[in-house]
Every structure is written in C-alpha cells, then in structure tokens.
Amino acid sequence: MASDVSLTVPRGVGAADGSDGDDVAGVADALARCSLALARRFSAGATMWCASPTWPFHAHHVAVEFVHPVIVGKRALPAVTVPPAADLVATLRASVVPGDIVLVLADAGDPRVIDALRRGAAWGVETVWIGAGSTRPDPGAANHVIWLDTDAPLHASERFVRIYHLLWELTHVCFEHPGLLKPEPDCTDEICITCSDEGRPAEVVSVDGDEALVRTPDGEETIDVSLIDAPAPGDLVLVHAGFAITGSVG
Amino acid sequence: MPETTDFLYPFIEGDETDADELLEDLARSAEGKWRQSARLREETLARTADQLRETAAAMAERFRAGGRLFTFGNGGSATDAEAVAHLYTQPPSGRPLPARSLAEDQAVMTALGNDVGFDLVFSRQLIAHGRGHDVAMGFSTSGNSENLMRAFAEARKQGMLTVGLSGYDGGRMAAEGTPVQQCLVARSDSVHRIQESQAALNHALWAAVQEELAPTH
Questions:
Q1: For B164, which of A97, A116, B123, B173 could close a Cys bridge (C-beta 3.0–4.6 Å)?
Q2: Residue B217's closest chain A neighbor by CA?
Q3: How much is the ipTM here?
Q4: Residue A194, pLDDT score
C-alpha cells in the first residue's frame, strides 16, 4: 500500500489559518499594486507579453486567462505568450511598444529573463516578475516582483496559479474605478527630476563611428557615443543631453 | 448601472483620485481568496486521499507495463495538461515517466479541429497513439467538455486507464455511466479555485505514483 501522500507533498504548513505557510500579506500587497498598474496600462492600450522559459504552461495560462475570461461579460484583454523556444529578448525587442507590459514567471537566476527585463526601461514597458526561491531578483530588476520564498518547486507551482488568477481578478476590480485609471498628469514643473534629461536609459540599435542610433521610450534618436567605449547593437546606455555617458548599463 | 443605485457608487463618474483605499481593498480581497483557496486545497486532498492512492496504484501498474500517460484539456485546463506532462517527464525528483499533452501540437490540433471538428481533437489522437496499457488523463472545471468525453470513451474502448479531474459536482465526467474510471473532483463553483485545487491534486497524484514505483516499495 502506498504511504500517505502527505509525506511527500507538503500539505500546507499553517493550514489552520489558511496561509499555507506563505507570506500571504506580502503577496497580497504586491498583487494589489501590480493589478492597479496593469489596469492602468491596459486602459491606455497595452498588450501584455507573457513568458516563462522554464515553465511555458504557466505563461500560456496567464495569457488565456486575460484573453478569454472565465467570467462571461468581463472584457477580453490583449495578452500573448512568447513561444518558449523563441529568443526572449529578440522577440520582445521586435514586438513591444512603449506602454506595454512584460510579465515573466521565472527563478531569480534565469539569465534570459534578467537580460530581457533589464531592457524594460529603454523599451518603456512595465515589467512584472513572478517567482519563488530563497534567492530574490536584484532590487529594481522589475517594476513589480511577486515572490514566494519557498524552494519547493511543486509548492511554488501551485501558488503561481493562485497568484495569476488573483492578478486577473484584481485587475478587473480596478476597471470598476475609472477615475484611478487615468494616465498620470504630465509633468509641468520647470525643473523635474523625473522628466529632466539627467540620464535616460536607451538600447543601441546601430553604431556608425562616434554616432549611434538608440531606442528610448520616446522613440529612436541619434546620440554621440564618443565618450564611452564603442557600444554594440543591443547594449544599454544612459543618455544625457545627446551623449551616451555610461556604456553597458545593467 | 441603474440610476437609483448611483449613490452607492460615489466614484462611478470617474472622479476618484485616491488609490490608497482601493489598494487596501484589493490586498484584503487577495488575502481572503488566498486563504479560501488554501482551505479548498486541504479539503480536496483530505477527501480524495484514498482515491488518490487507488488511482496512483493503477497508474503505476500501467507505467510498469510500458504504458504512457496522455493528458488533455481546453483553455486553462490545456495548460494543466501541459504542466502534468512536464511534471511526469521532467520531475524535480524521482523517476521520469513517459507523458504527453495532446493539446500541445498546433499542427495536429488545427488539422483535426478544421477537418473533423473540435469535439474529436483528442479522441482522434488517441485512436492514432493509444495502446491498451496507456493512461488517459483529462482536465475540466465543469466536467462536461464534449471533446474530453469523446476522448475518455475512446480510451476505454481501447482498455486504457481513464483518470479525470473535474470541478463543481463532477459534471458528466462523474455521472452515472461515465467512461472516467477515477474522477477526482475539486468541489467548488469557482473556476479559479477549482483549477488551483486541481494543481494540488496533480502534484499529490504524481507523488503517489512515484512512491508506488520507488524501488523500495
């Protein structure tokens, strides 16, 4: 006779309070902030690009959830799965437009995901990283990090399903609050840290001598790269007053 | 929104500006649903413990005889089928087992959907691939999907072991005369909560199959 399955599958530490041993409050706060951000982006016309190089089924599940809601009457939202066999950075670079969302499910150490998300600022996209493990992504690796500290893969996988279901549910709650979905007002201050040209992230498209064509959230522009080591297409740089001031950012 | 209830929704005109209250509501709602999901998970695993062991033993017998696992479902359940095939073939521990999701090959899915109809997309694949000692495992939240019922019927015709994961009251998959030999039901009326408990059932069943097949067993 088989031994009790509870010996091999964690039956939920802290089951009595329904927490399952997870940091429910922390996850709930992250979900709330992320949902409002997604609702704002979707309201402004965003497409959500979902990717999970290691667990493609999770990315597929997120996308189908948003595109084809289980509750009749909820609006269908544009969400897409990046095919797992595709080059993640190359696919996103060709596909995303400023204002889009990139959502990934991955371990903190996944090099494909790290390389994709560090370009988020240059592409002008909102980034969401859902994952688990005792190692967390570096601070600032994504706009939203929804994380579980467990190193048990099956425990994490089950919670991921909960997390993206709740993300969908809460995003639709936000749509009932149109006043909170308006775009942030344009900055009109004369001197503004956010808008000033102190150092904007950009991705190099092509290089021609001391000049480079770069991609920024505001479009493509030609900058002077004579102050830094010659960059290559795909490199990230910081742009200040028409000059690349730092090479190989990120 | 009927005008008479407008007073209940002070921000309905779109002039709401403070997001803090909404964020607080969202977080509390997420916490409540998380705990609700965790409780359903516990209840489902406890209620189905004997059935899980029985199903695992029958599946292990098929695997020992060289049988393979075919998984299938629609939509989110198709991703569950994919996740289960992934778990059996690339387990975090234990023995890799032959498993495949029938919803994964877009050439086959669109060929069958276009030529013979969507009700037959899984059963036709079982006609091509199935052998008597294989296992057919289908995922549905309603338990009523026609293409699953057709696939289970074909699987039974071939002598395969049929395992179903369902929700609500089990639907057709758990009804009298069903071709599903072992129907594991997550009893809820929320599609999301059902899928969350089905994920737990999948993991518990996989673990029990691994135990059955362990050398010391």
A1: B173
A2: A2
A3: 0.92
A4: 55
